[in-house]
Amino acid sequence: MFLFPLKIFSLLALFSFTFPHTSSSTAAGGDGASVCIIGSGIGGASVAHFLRRHSTNHHPKILIFERHAIVGGRIASVTIGGDAFEAGASILHPKNYHASNYTNFLNLTRKRPSSSEGSFSLGIWDGNGFVVKTLNLKSKWGIVNKIVSFFNGVSLFMRYGFSLVKMKGFVDETVNKFLKYYEGVETRPVFESVEEMLKWAGLFNLTGKSLKEELVDGVKLAPLLIKELVTVITRVNYGQGVNISGLAGAVSLAGSGRGVWAVEGGNWQIAAGLINSSDVELYLHEEIDSISYLGEYYELNSTKGNAYSCEVAVVATPLDESSIQFSPPVSVPVRQLQHTHATFVRGLVNPVYFGLKAVSEIPELVATIEDPRLPFTSISILKCYNETDMTYKIFSRQAMTDALLDSIFSVRKETVQINWGAYPHYKAPEKFAPFILDGKHLYYVNAFENVASTVETSAVAAENIARLILSRFFGKDSSCPSAIKRTSCSSAEALHSDT
Ligand SMILES: *[C@@H]1O[C@H](CO)[C@@H](O)[C@H](O)[C@H]1NC(C)=O
Ligand SMILES: *[C@@H]1O[C@H](CO)[C@@H](O)[C@H](O)[C@H]1NC(C)=O
Ligand SMILES: *[C@@H]1O[C@H](CO)[C@@H](O)[C@H](O)[C@H]1NC(C)=O
Ligand SMILES: *[C@@H]1O[C@H](CO)[C@@H](O)[C@H](O)[C@H]1NC(C)=O
Ligand SMILES: *[C@@H]1O[C@H](CO)[C@@H](O)[C@H](O)[C@H]1NC(C)=O
Ligand SMILES: *[C@@H]1O[C@H](CO)[C@@H](O)[C@H](O)[C@H]1NC(C)=O
Ligand SMILES: *[C@@H]1O[C@H](CO)[C@@H](O)[C@H](O)[C@H]1NC(C)=O
Questions:
Q1: What are the Prenylcysteine lyase domain coordinates in residue numbering (predicted)?
Q2: Which of 34, 44, 243, 472 is the most buried (most CB within 10 A)?
Q3: For ligand 1, is residue 301 a contact (CB within 6 Å)?
Q4: Which of 75, 175, 172 is nearest to 454 (CA)?
Q5: Is residue 213 in contact with ligand 4, taking CB distance under 6 Å?
Q6: β-bridge mates for residue 69, sequence order
Q7: 284 near 66, Cβ under 8 Å?
Q8: Under a CB-based contact definition with an 8 Å cutoff, are residues 123 and 132 in contact?
Q9: CB of 51 within 8 A of CB of 57?
Q10: Residue minimizing CA distance to atom 10 of ligand 2
């Protein structure tokens, strides 16, 4: 459940708004068909984009339903103290090629993430003291990623030794396997399940073991590195310790690498731009609460009592906390969402909380190890106005109470708290929901979120879903023999030769 008690950018006025009522349904398999997408985050926006990009000879009507007043889902901005910061998905990796292409295609500008300018310091807090504390090292990179730029830092090398090098090797190897998903559609199959998709890239085994098992048994990292630095990174990225799957862990560690970036003015513009450029009917403030299969089409009903019919329906939001009723029912493995409370404070941290004398002694990123007594995951400086006036971001598993905030901050001028159902609670071995929920034309983008939850993994999953729709629905009366359905023949490009 997303709380938006904040002043976020309202896109209402920016989109041509179509008034709801039942949309037409026409003969299946062809044009005039409608694709309904539930959720306007990066997954839903990417499905729309790739349906257009991969098909020139089919132009279905695309409807996107968003229950909030704005698009973007878990990519959102928060305004505090007059400045806007990323409230959800905040950093992009240099090898996030879909996000990168979107940014170019939409004429958006890249920037370094907030608080990346100048020098910064990292402290790993265990409740009694800082087990690691670096001061004023020069770095040009973003928050978590900064940690790894410390690889060269003498203090970390002294503490963790060559395990740092082994860890980087593990991350690079995993990232290289992931790059297979950018191969051209001529050689890259359309995948009917997450398992099949992972096996093809050689990534499936990493979902069978926890990150801890993988790093201890496979990569043979020093236990201290796992307990401290690795745990800090998975906690900051996924709010969870090293029991997450090896694959989610590798993605998390990769996200702490060099060269990370964000979109100037807010990452949400990627989702907004993709929707705006894909000839979509966007319905804001429209919460779908039932999806019923009625033979030739799906009927989607909203909480406002509107009904829509579509030949293809795409769920692009996690079903775990959703109240959508399916008829006939669908079955997905039980999955919990990990809730992360993001608290933004304009004010000043009290050094006494950390047993320090001066504000200047507090590291700019204070991260914590796994210990149930610690009331927060991390506190970082987003922006420093002057020595007594800063904006901070705190991540925690529980909501931060006023009493707790008052013990951590000596000055608190403005506080904004967001409770995100942020990402799945990862475990090993992972179980995956199907991409195709009913064996027909009801699809689920977020099945892939058990792999790892990022902007890029959502885009990769969405592209596959778009290709599944084009081959299974629009390609079904093509001359493609079913025996070679999984190969290039069913690829969207192959459809171009139909006409
Ligand atoms: C991006 O800029 C180019 C050149 O100015 C323009 O042709 C194109 O339409 C723009 N794209 C979008 C999505 O606005
Ligand atoms: C990104 O865009 C370039 C240039 O248009 C294209 O060659 C490449 O295939 C695109 N990458 C992906 C992952 O779509
Ligand atoms: C995954 O594990 C299976 C069974 O343990 C093994 O046969 C296979 O080679 C492994 N695949 C990769 C890519 O490591
Ligand atoms: C990780 O899993 C082990 C074994 O299942 C368990 O003992 C431990 O408490 C878990 N750690 C966390 C942080 O959940
Ligand atoms: C939507 O796209 C048009 C050009 O196609 C552009 O002028 C407009 O600014 C875009 N709006 C948003 C919200 O991106
Ligand atoms: C959806 O709405 C239609 C039209 O109002 C109604 O006939 C139908 O019973 C509703 N379906 C569900 C599952 O509520
Ligand atoms: C810091 O900035 C605030 C306004 O943002 C101002 O009120 C205060 O006087 C400044 N303090 C110093 C030490 O410059």
A1: 146-476
A2: 44
A3: no
A4: 75
A5: no
A6: none
A7: yes
A8: yes
A9: no
A10: 101
d(CA 311, CA 25): 7
For the record, the structure tokens of 126 come out as: 């265990």
Ligand nearest to the CA of 307: 6
Tell me: the pLDDT tens digits for 411-433? 999 999 999 999 999 999 999 99
Ligand 2 pocket at CB < 6 A: 97-98, 101, 182
Share of the chain above pLDDT 70, in %: 83
Looking at the CA of residue 104, tell me the nearest atom of ligand 2. Answer: 2
> Residue 359 in 3-state DSSP?
helix
Rounded to whole angstroms, how far apart are CA atoms 498 and 477? 10
Q: How far is CA 197 from CA 18, 192, 319, 433, 448, in A?
A: 36, 8, 21, 13, 9
Among 47, 30, 62, 1, smallest CA distance to 444 is for: 47
Q: Is the pLDDT assigned to residue 322 strictly greater than 70?
A: yes
**Among 152, 354, 144, 172, residue whose Cα is nearest residue 230:** 144
Q: Which domains does the chain have, with CATH numbers?
A: 12-75+264-333+431-496 (3.50.50.60), 112-185+203-258+337-424 (3.90.660)
- Sheet hosting strand 61-65, strand order edge to edge: 280-283, 61-65, 34-38, 312-315, 442-444
Atom 1, ligand 1: which residue's CA is nearest? 107
Q: Whose CA is nearest to atom 5 of ligand 4?
A: 243
Q: Which residues sit with their C-beta closer than 6 Å to ligand 6?
A: 290, 292, 299, 301, 307, 327
Average pLDDT over residues 245-267: 89
> In terms of Cα–Cα distance, which of 460, 468, 424 is closest to 443?
468
Residue 265, phi-psi category: left (phi > 0), alpha (psi -120 to 50), beta (remainder): left
Among protein residues, the one whose CA lies closest to atom 8 of ligand 2: 101
**Contact status, residue 31 vs residue 60, Cβ threshold 8 Å:** yes
> Which ligand number lies closest to the CA of residue 227?
4
User: Which is more confidently placed, 29 or 41?
Assistant: 41
Category of 32 on φ-ψ map: left (φ > 0), alpha (ψ -120 to 50) or beta: left
Q: How many percent of the chain have pLDDT more than 90?
A: 73
- Cut 0.85: pTM above it: yes
Helix (H) or strand (E) holding 78: strand 77-80
Using N-to-C axis directions, what is the helix angle for 42-53 and 455-469, rounded to 10°? 40
Give the mean model confidence (pLDDT) for residues 389-393: 96
CB-ligand 4 contact for 370 (6 Å cutoff)? yes
